[in-house]
């Protein structure tokens, strides 16, 4: 299947415009930029491959599409690991549950010699998010047993931004297939990285893109509101 480059360019250009003009809100800026960089790489690779011979273009497009899934999974992983480092209200018992693994002397030296080491910092460097199961496992320990996927899918957010058609919805209502999509993003990434198997369908790129974006959006909102609630409680106590 040959990529519709114009369709890709139009779709991602509109996404950037929506963010700039406020129709897309609440996204973490670092994640958003990383995400758009992945899209730009895909468009660039596809545009270049279209100038080659049909067989070469088809093969190059498969690799470009596979790299897009790799970049999407990396964007999710970096965002979640950064989230762990930036927050300071994780469950104390969860640290012990996550940090019961042994590390080598070289690993310890690398961690302790160059940085101000904190428990979240160690988790950042020793944890890899390459499946939904791993995300649930790590965050359930840090969140006192709560399932992060169950928590975020009912968080309300606004679609439509500043337009007249804006409305409140949730991940569960707006993107009901989101869990399946995210798991498939990781699976596609792992098959490509470890087995060299590329995804086959071009049209699904857009659905995966939206599901990953709104997943991050819901995670971001969940923890932002949790922090705001905690701040308000502290202010009341100090009055």
Give the total of beta strands.
2
What is the quaternary state of this protein? Answer: single chain
Compute the CA-based radius of gyration.
20 Å
Shape designation? globular
Give the low-pLDDT segments. Answer: none
Could you walk me through the main structural features you see in this protein, from its secondary elements to its overall organization?
The protein has helices spanning 5-20, 29-49, 54-86, 92-98, 105-114, 119-126, 132-142, 148-152, 171-174, 178-195, 204-238, and strands spanning 156-159, 167-170. Helix 3 packs parallel to helix 11 and helix 10 packs across helix 11 (204-238). It is 70% helix and 3% strand. The mean pLDDT is 79. A hairpin with a 7-residue loop joins strand 1 (156-159) and strand 2. With 239 residues, the chain is mainly alpha-helical.
How would you summarize this macromolecular structure in one to three sentences?
By secondary structure, the protein is mostly helical. It is built from 11 helices and 2 strands; from the N terminus they run H-H-H-H-H-H-H-H-E-E-H-H-H. It starts with a helix and ends with a helix.
List keywords for this structure.
70% helix
Secondary-structure map:
Blueprint: H1 5-20, H2 29-49, H3 54-86, H4 92-98, H5 105-114, H6 119-126, H7 132-142, H8 148-152, E1 156-159, E2 167-170, H9 171-174, H10 178-195, H11 204-238
Antiparallel strand pairs: 1-2
């Amino acid at each position: 299947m040959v990529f519709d480059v114009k369709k890709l360019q139009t779709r991602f250009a509109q996404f950037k415009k929506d963010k700039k003009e406020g129709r897309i809100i609440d996204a973490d800026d670092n994640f958003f930029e990383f995400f758009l960089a992945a899209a730009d790489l895909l468009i660039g690779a596809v545009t270049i491959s279209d100038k080659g011979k049909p067989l070469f273009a088809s093969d190059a497009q498969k690799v470009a599409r596979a790299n897009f899934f790799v970049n999407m999974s990396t964007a999710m992983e970096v965002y979640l690991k950064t989230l762990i480092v930036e927050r300071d209200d994780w469950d104390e018992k969860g640290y012990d549950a996550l940090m019961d693994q042994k590390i080598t002397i070289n690993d310890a030296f690398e961690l302790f010699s160059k940085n101000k080491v904190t428990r979240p910092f160690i988790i950042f460097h020793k944890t890899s998010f390459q499946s939904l199961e791993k995300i649930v496992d790590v965050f359930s320990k840090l969140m006192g047993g709560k399932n992060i996927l169950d928590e975020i899918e009912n968080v309300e957010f606004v679609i439509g931004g500043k337009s007249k058609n804006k409305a409140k919805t949730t991940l569960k209502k707006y993107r009901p297939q989101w869990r399946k999509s995210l798991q498939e993003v990781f699976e596609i990434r792992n098959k490509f990285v470890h087995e060299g198997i590329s995804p086959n369908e071009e049209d699904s790129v857009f659905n995966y893109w939206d599901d990953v974006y709104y997943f991050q959006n819901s995670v971001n909102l969940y923890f932002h509101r949790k922090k705001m609630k905690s701040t308000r409680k502290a202010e009341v106590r100090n009055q």
